[in-house]
Amino acid sequence: MDTQAFTNQVVLITGAGGALGAAIGRRFAAGGATVALVGRSADSLDRAAATLPGDAKHQVFTGDVTDAQSIGSTVDDVASTLGRLDVLVNGAGRVVQGTIEQIDLDSYREMMATHVDGTIYTSRAALEHLRAHRGCIINIGSVSGLNGDWGQAAYNAAEGAITTLTRGMALDHGHEVRVNSVHPGAIITDAMTEQAFADGSPIAAAWNARIPMGRVAQPEDVVGVVAFLASAEARYVNGACIPVDGGLTASNGQPSLPAILGDIVLK
């Protein structure tokens, strides 16, 4: 891919104050884009903006994706202030663990509002601006939206909605605005997940045994796929939901017999 593939383009990223959102911002900034970092916390957005190359041209915009009026005003402000909008990355999200019996219902509603309402509200507001430049939308989902997880049915519902929403939007808008999604697996995004996945921890051992590449992801493992989908090289890619999970979802769920029985299964 051209190292300056996004020169003169404006990229809006929601959830940009988090580790993955900030890493996505750095990738687009390195490609020449002007990045609009959007989220609810100005402090976290400012910290993310400080890590972007060429930070003088990048800007922070506060807005709440769960509020249609708030995020609509924010998207319009980005397009007006920066002159255009070429790429929308819907990256805002919230993980709440628990079965449907266990999960706190207020937390469940907030999770659904962030993932589903937020993606719809932000995309709805951005479409007019994206059409003007035949732009694109990339939704950040999860492998939890492609298959089920133990003890995370509500989160599966939120992420599964992103998968099918991406496909429906691609049908409706692909003639003008391409729509695709990226689905990371286990990923280190903060101090808590870094500690959980530290070498030697039981959580890391369990994940590493399931992931063919033998490790969980860093944000930098995901950003190249996002950039590709936004680039001219992906100009005929529309409605794709791409797992970026080290091969985790390549499995049909059966245990590894060679790992359990050794060479005996090969004889």
TrEMBL record:
Stored CDD domains: SDR_c (cd05233)
Record's protein name: Meso-butanediol dehydrogenase / (S,S)-butanediol dehydrogenase / diacetyl reductase
Keywords: Oxidoreductase
Family: Belongs to the short-chain dehydrogenases/reductases (SDR) family.
SMART domains per record: PKS_KR
Segments forming domain Ketoreductase: 9-191
Gene3D superfamilies recorded: NAD(P)-binding Rossmann-like Domain
GO molecular function list: oxidoreductase activity, acting on the CH-OH group of donors, NAD or NADP as acceptor
